[in-house]
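BACKBONE STRUCTURE TOKENS:
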Amino acid sequence: MIREDLKDTGEIVQNILTQPLAIPGIKGSLNLAKAAKDYDPRNPLRSDLRKILLSFLQFPEQTQELLEQLDVLRKEI
């Protein structure tokens, strides 16, 4: 049972990290995993990760929902 729970949790986290995001100012498909992977610390102000994080600030209700979902997952594992 624990193995199934971990597998399910891993799939949910993977979906969160790879789901396409609609972020103003970003062309094409983007997700958290890609933005983190492509992040260039030499140019942080132009990074897609920064744009995603700014959108979290612009939409606090959705951000709070995401944090609550992650907290539920954390408690499950």
In short: The chain has a mean pLDDT of 90. The chain has one domain: 2-76. Residues 2-76 form one domain.
